[in-house]
Amino acid sequence: MGANMARRLKDVGYTVAAVYDVRADAAKALAEELGAEATSRLSRVTELSDVIVTVVTDDKAQLDVFTNRKDNLLIGAKGRVFVNCATISPKTHVAVEKLAKSAGASSLEGCMASSITQARNGTLYLMTGGDEGVYEKVKPILSKLSDDGKLMTYIGKAGKAFFTASGTEADETAVALAQIATGRQEIIALRHGYSGRSLLAQSLTAHAKYRAVPTQVAAIKHAHAPYCYRCPYGATIEHCGIRCAKDIEELIQTTTTGQIAGFLAEPIQGVGGFIVAPDGYFKVAVDIVKRYGGLFIADEVQTGFGRTGTKMWGIEHHEGVEPDIMTMAKGIANGLPIGACLATVPVADAWKAGNIATFGGNPLSTAAANATIDVIVEERLPENAAHMGRALRDGLEALKAKYGHVIGDVRGKGLMQALELVKDEKAGDRTPDGGAVSRLFEETKKQGLLIGRGGLYGNVVRIAPPLNVTRAQIDAGLAALDAAFGAFAETTP
């Protein structure tokens, strides 16, 4: 970890047991300062600490967050990022630790020791080494999550799952599956959408910032997004007749063979700036897609697992719509790497070729996924997201009323809310103001509030608190945002 982080842990009462570096002498000075042992052996760190945790940061605001969360923070070691338990639910961590020990390791670190030096990208995985006994121990975890288990409970109908290591890989699987199941190739995606960083995913993505290379995969057509604040037809939501959805038919008729493989869309476009489709949009869009032989792929990577409130999936907020394929990632295991592609049985069974994902469905991540889903269901976090989301939305609407010249739009569902900043909404100037977001963020950092940015123009403030956020935390965040807007407004030209 950063030296300042180690010192801060010491200051707030934690015991730093060991400072690790591949060169013991490099760790010696800091170890002496902290009264810890310097070591170049991971096995020695394991002996001294229950769990290896690394937080690589010297940012004061982040240090405050990490060191004040004593329920989640465990003692860490200096070095590469293995897993950041400061952002993982204690119950998720306990499940992972339990699995590691059941596999014969004395600790999570002991389980990883043989491969930890290769884990430079933060990926954490279990080395089973072909041990039949270990496989038998982790097999029930896999079947509990897939087969007819937890994920299938929420797809809406019987289905099958293929586990991956990321949302990008899940979207890749979904598109290939739609093409195989229909025998067609052309895919409809949405402008402002984001699907990941592979060649196919970048071709699906309609967001220049995230397209590092020109379109490499043919047969992808982009329809208008249901971006009501910036309607491509210049209409208002009350009088638009959902033209953006109806236009998909002409798009199919004029830019495809007339027979498509599928339609991939996020229920709320995440990277696009939390763009929320109006009621009725997906019913119209999906009905058109079905008429032309396509399957509906719901990308729930950002909206899934209760994020939008009340429902487990974002698409459930749209009546009369049921996906043939769903993709998900992020929220499944609360920070550990796992994604999934779910499909109805007839669609899933269309795949006859061999298929493998090296780390997809690995026992460590699936153990965390089981524990995470248990917490989401048992603690009724979708309901909490709905209640806290309403409180957050009310507070954001109040900010718009107060700072209405710069806040052009407030939108979202549940704990997925956004503010779009513009030059002067009151004067009718909706020119995107990404610079305003940058200036605002300088003020929010001073308030100890870390929030995100999104949107095609970089002018959207994205706010997505943890699903178990409390009313007191929502109120504190809104107060910090109000103070930041106040200071920001004073310095705005």
What is the topological layout?
Blueprint: H1 3-11, E1 18-20, H2 24-34, E2 37-39, H3 42-48, H4 60-68, H5 90-102, H6 108-112, H7 132-145, H8 150-153, E3 159-164, H9 167-182, E4 187-190, H10 199-204, E5 220-223, H11 243-255, E6 262-265, E7 268-269, E8 275-276, H12 281-291, E9 295-299, E10 325-328, E11 339-344, H13 345-348, H14 363-378, H15 381-402, E12 407-413, E13 416-424, E14 429-432, H16 434-446, E15 452-454, E16 460-463, H17 471-491
Could you provide a short overview of the structure?
The chain has about 500 residues and is an alpha/beta fold. Helix content is about 40%, strand content about 15%. The protein folds into 3 domains: about 5-90 and about 100-125, no CATH class; about 140-380, Type I PLP-dependent aspartate aminotransferase-like (Major domain) (Aspartate Aminotransferase, domain 2); about 380-490, Alpha-Beta Complex (Aspartate Aminotransferase, domain 1), CATH 3.90.1150.
